[in-house]
Design goal:
- The protein has a domain of 174 residues: Nucleotidyltransferase, domain 5, CATH 3.30.420.
- Helix content is 41%, strand content 12%.
- Strands 5-4-1-2-3-6 form a six-stranded mixed sheet.
- Helix 6 packs across helix 9.
- It comes from Acrocarpospora phusangensis.
- InterPro entries: DUF429.
């Protein structure tokens, strides 16, 4: 199995892609590229059995409806306050992740991550042109991931390792990652992971993609499926990291969450 992790940014300079090859005895990072452009990202996704994308795959339905109503000058709710704005800014999956993990995904409607989602929208269109239609619910090759939530679920450090000023924390995270996953071989790319949080997040995204490929992640409930179809769905692992090697592909799907 080949899983790919993409730590997507608005520009290639801050985008990393990791290729993770799985065997019966371990997982090996076979390639890791920083400063990844659109063509490389598209080719990586097309080659993967499962690809974890660290980026919102869609916008909140209520936000889209709001934009359409505002453009047409239609009446908006009177006395709309903080809770109304929260519902505009957050997707269903964002609220589920917050409830499950305590982590708050950035709002694609109200934060700068919207620029990243715009880039992804173009990539998704290109993938469709090449025959790989993206199912935003995660049931196809592509699944939306959130490395911080995956790390927190796995009991690993999940904050404080971003940016060059925090290289010591990044190195501690790499050390911590090896303890539950001695079967993970970073090989020649370990130094890159110790120097670039983008690179390490791409590896975590590829690990989460493995969990998704084994059906060991959260999935939308029946009532959430329609929102997930348009807004996207963040897959959170439901198994310890150490167990990713002990499950075979196509295992039983855990109970639905949310």
């Amino acid at each position: 199995m080949l899983t790919v992790g993409v730590d997507l940014a608005a520009e290639a300079a801050d985008t990393a892609v990791a290729w993770l090859e799985w065997s019966r005895t371990g997982a090996r990072v076979s390639r890791l590229v920083t400063r990844a452009g659109d063509e490389l990202v598209a080719e990586a996704v097309l080659a993967a059995d499962k690809a974890g994308i660290d980026c919102p795959l869609g916008w909140p339905d209520k936000f889209v409806d709001f934009l359409l109503a505002q453009r047409e000058g239609l009446p908006l709710p009177s006395g709309a306050g903080r809770l109304w704005r929260r519902d505009l800014a957050n997707r269903v999956t964002d609220l589920v992740v917050r409830d499950l993990t305590g982590q708050r995904p950035l709002s694609v409607a109200a934060d700068r991550i919207g620029y990243v989602a715009m880039r992804w929208a173009g990539l998704a269109a290109e993938l469709a042109r090449r025959g790989q239609v993206v199912d935003r619910r995660g049931s196809g090759v592509v699944v939306e991931v959130y490395p911080a939530a995956s790390l927190k679920w796995w009991g690993l450090p999940f904050t404080g390792y971003k940016r060059a000023a925090n290289l010591a924390e990044l190195n501690r995270l790499v050390d911590a990652l090896h303890r539950p996953a001695p079967w993970l071989d970073l090989g020649e790319f370990e130094s890159v992971c110790r120097a670039s949080d983008d690179a390490l997040d791409a590896v975590v995204a590829a690990l989460t993609a493995r969990a998704a490929a084994l059906d060991l992640v959260t999935v939308p409930s029946p009532g959430q499926l329609e929102s997930a179809r348009t807004e996207g769905w963040i897959a959170i692992p439901t198994t310890p990291l150490a167990e990713l090697m002990s499950h075979s592909e196509g295992g039983p799907r855990p109970g639905e969450h949310g």
